[in-house]
């Protein structure tokens, strides 16, 4: 999970503050020295760190600390507030043209930053919002780039537009927009070529596209693993071609990702999304305030809720009502169990969800041990080894059937027994606590609880 | 200075131009203007951190400097410059036996995260060893990325060396096994193994790497082993974590830093060597074959700080 180490570090600092009761000026300085080290180790730009520490210090030392509040709380509050204001105080979305007008988005970035993958991820997001995106292959240099974009477009079930590698990117862009007008696409995303480093040739090509077609949004993809350099990359693109938003890629590969903090501060451009994995759905909205909370170890509960509601939107409303009714009566069956497993997976698996909850003093490793994804896969295999009749009527399960299921799922019979027993207990529990499940509005955290 | 040495030096310097421009200007300003006080040290820290050297390494270097300044009662900031350079040089020393493998029969496993330039580096190494008259074999064990094998075949053709490859999606360990067997039977001097890029926090992919490492160990225990991690020079402190994680999976014997021409800094090289004690063995300062250079700590640090007297290189502000 990104920011993990930074979170741990800051939490250790604050732990020592909490135990002291009152904060002296020296305490604030000592604490902020640790904060500074942690931020620098996380690749936050040095100048940003300095500025940050200064503003926190200025606020923390003096009357605000002296006026009798819990000193630890006070520093956390100030650090949090300053961090939020540093990262931009509100969420920004990709600005789309009103009505049916076509929005043209141009992607840019250095070689290997992850432009093509991000392009497909954005298209997926747009499709979810009911738009009709068109992916355009303007990277005519890298041999597999066109193919990669086509394959990704297919996976996302959106259209792509290519003209091979003999046409200039400007002409491809022009033709693509015409194509979009004819075919009713309302979003055109141009995937451009990257270079090893910032060179004039690449910048000229991008400028050329911008001069010849109307680009509404220019998005810069920055590899989150980049060090102090991330800020330089962002500012040179911004100065030379103008950037409207930034996307941080490869955030899953990194424990820190301090670049998120500095890029916004130095360029003044918002971070729109963060790429969190190799799957095409692993693109998350960037919420500055939530991210700040997450860095401080307060958990990203809001982001969690967001993910859940997104997954819930895909659930059939009728089905959900039905589910709520079943919950009340304690009549859930194994089909419901399978459904909720599917939903869970859409949200990135259980450990991904747990990682977003506030720190509980349990380390991530311990968490992973406690929630064994393999175990969950076993349970799913058990359900899948049942006949449809068994799934909808758990009462059918007798020893002979259980034996067959165990063989089918490749698990021991005891595991099947335990699972079925837990399931029955859960049903009972639901009957006893009718008010807790299936409230008036069907926005329950997981759709249902799990038997483990 | 010999002709060859100068050639290397010039190339290294031209590759590191950007590094120098930003880095050295700041350092020079610092050492000519400031007095030795807290501000001086803070500014120095800023310069080193901005160069991606990492906070731990910076503090170490600065602490050493402080001790010497106190001990020798240094009052003049300009004297600190040489002390600083020497201290970084000491940290960057390449062990004497670092390149012994180049004389023996050796197997070189090249690993790293995605997109750092592993395949290109293998191509460059193959040309280099081939031109030194050694019998080279390349193993294309990146069976995951679509065009990886084709890319490597092109490099093998250019260097006129043999290549062992398999279909896309094949078990990389089987490629390694075949390549080692072939290297043995053909009496190859140097076997270069390319692997798929993997993020250091993906457990199963790191296990796959361990397996490849074990296979080489067990099927050709007599060969001299080198495990090189390739790091992107533009990466920040994460490069340290990468090196640590990969060292856990396979004993790293050396580091290759690429794209040093693309970044404004080269400081991560200092951080890695001083914190992990894994020597940098090659650096990539450009895109052509000759731009992969044996790492020379003295030349590197001198070029970094622009120590040589070179008329065309006179700094403008002086």
Overall description:
The complex is a heterodimer of chains A (452) and B (318). With 452 residues, chain A is α/β, with parallel strands linked by helices. Chain A has 3 domains: 4-87, Four Helix Bundle (Hemerythrin (Met), subunit A) (Up-down Bundle); 103-298, Rossmann fold (3-Layer(aba) Sandwich); 307-436, Signal recognition particle, SRP54 subunit, M-domain (434 Repressor (Amino-terminal Domain)). Chain A has helices at residues 4-18, 25-41, 46-60, 63-66, 71-87, 115-128, 145-156, 169-183, 200-212, 229-240, 259-267, 288-295, 301-313, 317-329, 334-346, 350-356, 364-370, 373-384, 388-392, 399-409, 413-432, and strands at residues 103-109, 133-137, 159-161, 187-191, 217-223, 245-249, 271-275, 283-285. An 8-stranded mixed sheet of chain A has the order 3-2-4-1-5-6-7-8, with helices on both faces. In chain A, α2 runs antiparallel to α3 (46-60), α6 packs parallel to α7 and α10 runs parallel beside α11 (259-267). The longest helix of chain A is centred in the C-terminal third of the chain and has 20 residues, at 413-432. The radius of gyration of chain A is 26 Å and the shape is globular. Chain B has helices at residues 3-15, 17-33, 38-50, 55-71, 79-92, 118-131, 148-159, 172-185, 203-219, 238-249, 268-276, 297-305, and strands at residues 106-111, 136-141, 162-164, 190-195, 224-232, 254-258, 280-284, 292-294. In chain B, α4 packs across α5 (79-92), α5 runs antiparallel to α12 and α8 (172-185) packs parallel to α9 (203-219). Residues 1-6 and 308-318 of chain B have low confidence and may be disordered. At the A-B interface, α2 and α10 of A face α3 and α10 of B.
Walk me through the topology.
The complex is a heterodimer of chains A (452) and B (318).
Chain A: H1 4-18, H2 25-41, H3 46-60, H4 63-66, H5 71-87, E1 103-109, H6 115-128, E2 133-137, H7 145-156, E3 159-161, H8 169-183, E4 187-191, H9 200-212, E5 217-223, H10 229-240, E6 245-249, H11 259-267, E7 271-275, E8 283-285, H12 288-295, H13 301-313, H14 317-329, H15 334-346, H16 350-356, H17 364-370, H18 373-384, H19 388-392, H20 399-409, H21 413-432
Parallel strand pairs in A: 1-4, 1-5, 2-3, 2-4, 5-6, 6-7
Antiparallel strand pairs in A: 7-8
Chain B: H1 3-15, H2 17-33, H3 38-50, H4 55-71, H5 79-92, E1 106-111, H6 118-131, E2 136-141, H7 148-159, E3 162-164, H8 172-185, E4 190-195, H9 203-219, E5 224-232, H10 238-249, E6 254-258, H11 268-276, E7 280-284, E8 292-294, H12 297-305
Parallel strand pairs in B: 1-4, 1-5, 2-3, 2-4, 5-6, 6-7
Antiparallel strand pairs in B: 7-8
